[in-house]
Design a protein that fits this description.
14 helices; alpha/beta; five-stranded mixed β-sheet; Rossmann fold; D-Maltodextrin-Binding Protein, domain 2
Length: 499
């Protein structure tokens, strides 16, 4: 094939996405000349009707599909989440490229901070359902939340936010990332507008554990005619099969609940080195709440083969109290002096007081509990690693490079970040029950090391911990370590084995 025509929507984001696919094709097949066709769809033409009120769930894709079927184009590039879960005969999704960020972002006017009532712009029933539960606990002030429909491309929606009376906007982070990373001059107006607009806004990246994405969010669908084997082979050569499989899993699960953009259900499927994580939250068409977060680890089948009622530790979180804390008062003054950095907080009690972090800094937490605790103290939190470890959910700013600082204790030396020590750990007496147990869950590598120093014989027993740095550090010493989503998941697994 010498020439290949790509059709997509004509919005700036859609053109960027179409060109991302074109770049992949050119890199793998430099002899192919690519022509772009940009179209206005029904969803682009009608910017007044809320998406969940529009009768056709293919409002952004059907007009483009017709060009494929009529052979005016060879492939179509879509935001995959816009596609119906069932395609009509004649075309199929034949590939995708590397998936963008699955998460949503919230932008809030700085002038709206501390308002008693917020109006949030969004056209997604899923976001409205899940964020109505999360945001009251994640924002650093008490407020009532209501949602209002908004239409238009990303920059249009942000402009509507700043120019109108509403307070906040929720958008897909992948859209923000792609516009900011677009290098061609034709996209400079949109990129520069985003950089300018965000100066008047506070932002946060919303965690998948609380607000799982729309099925396929962040992924691009490459659609072709079913009988066009030549085109299908070209796309197959550039397709990211890991991303493709994850999206198919999400869409299949959404389909089991009815499917479509009218759904109030978010579905996120994340593939990790040690297993996969499925998160489903929202409300079914029957009005039933649903909330599932399951980590399917690559666990050895015989991991719990010698488990009994007395040989696991701890039986509750209080039993794994290995240290008492000694606060370093001078650290508060140091923390207050820090500006224009990223501050990573692994536990909320590393920052004891209020108003200790300057507003110029970005705050990222290790998990949701720490986020909510800091918000309760009045801190604006920008995002979280969602208890998956920094490797899987990296702290970041979409708008600029950030130097990161981790607030922690004096024994935490195994880190690639600058460290600010705000407390010391003073060891307590290690429970003698440990020496008789065969199964352990560790909240930190520091606790594991203290127990190991006291009872070296436990090194060859079976250990468990979360998915982050604790797993990495313990695995460097113990050979039989299994990751779990959290302590509660480990307890659930034990309970099920003992039934």
């Amino acid at each position: 094939m010498k020439n290949l025509k790509i059709v997509s929507r004509k919005s700036p984001l859609a053109r960027i996405q179409s060109q991302l696919v074109a770049e992949k094709i050119k890199a793998s097949h430099p002899h192919i000349k690519i022509q772009h066709i940009y179209k206005k769809t029904l969803g682009d033409a009608d910017l007044n009707t809320p998406l969940d009120k529009m009768p056709d769930i293919g409002v952004f894709t059907n007009d483009i599909r017709h060009d494929l079927i009529n052979k005016k184009a060879d492939i179509a590039v879509h935001s995959w989440k816009d596609l119906p879960v069932d395609l009509e005969q004649g075309t199929e999704i034949v590939g995708t490229i590397e998936r963008g960020d699955m998460r949503d972002m919230l932008f809030l006017k700085k002038s709206s901070i501390n308002k008693r009532s917020l109006t949030i712009l969004s056209s997604s029933p899923r976001r409205e359902k899940n964020l109505s539960l999360f945001l009251p606990l994640a924002l650093p002030f008490k407020t009532k939340i209501q949602f209002k429909s908004v239409r238009g491309n990303v920059n249009t929606r942000l402009s509507k936010l700043l120019e109108g009376d509403d307070d906040a906007l929720v958008v897909a982070k992948a859209a923000i990332d792609r516009i900011l990373n677009a290098q061609k001059k034709e996209f400079s107006p949109e990129r520069n507008q985003l950089l300018e607009i965000q100066r008047d806004l506070k932002w946060m990246v919303l965690p998948l554990s609380q607000n799982p994405c729309a099925a396929a969010q962040g992924a691009l669908a490459i659609e072709a005619r079913q009988n066009d084997d030549e085109v299908k082979n070209i796309i197959s050569s550039i397709s990211d099969q890991k991303a493709f499989s994850s999206v198919e899993t999400e869409r299949s699960l959404l389909k089991s609940y009815g499917g479509g953009c009218h759904q109030k259900i978010g579905v996120s499927y994340e593939v990790m080195e040690k297993g996969s994580l499925l998160t489903v939250r929202g409300e079914t068409e029957e009005g039933d709440d649903i909330s599932r977060r399951l980590f399917n680890g690559n666990e050895a089948k015989d991991y719990f083969n010698s488990l009994n009622l007395n040989n696991y530790f701890p039986i509750n979180k209080n039993e794994q109290k290995f240290f008492k804390r000694k606060e370093l008062k001078d650290s508060e003054e140091t923390l207050q002096s820090i500006k224009d950095k990223g501050i990573y907080v692994s536990r909320s009690n590393t920052i004891l007081g209020e108003a200790l972090v300057d507003d110029s800094n970005i705050i990222w937490t290790s998990g949701i509990k720490t986020w909510k605790s800091l918000a309760h103290k009045g801190y604006w939190v920008n995002g979280t690693s969602d208890s998956l470890g920094e490797k899987y959910s990296p702290e970041e700013s979409p708008f600029k490079e950030i130097d990161w600082l981790k607030v922690t204790h004096a024994k935490n030396k195994n880190d690639n970040k600058e460290i600010l020590v705000t407390y010391e750990l003073e060891p307590l007496k290690v429970s003698s029950r440990i020496k008789d147990c065969h199964y352990f869950y560790w909240m930190s590598a520091t606790s594991f090391q203290l127990a190991l120093d006291e009872y070296p014989e436990i090194i060859d027993r079976k250990h468990a911990c979360g998915l982050g740095k604790t797993y990495k550090l313990i695995s460097q010493k113990a050979s039989n370590v299994q990751p779990f989503l959290d302590f509660e998941s480990w307890v659930d697994a034990i309970t099920n084995k003992l039934k």
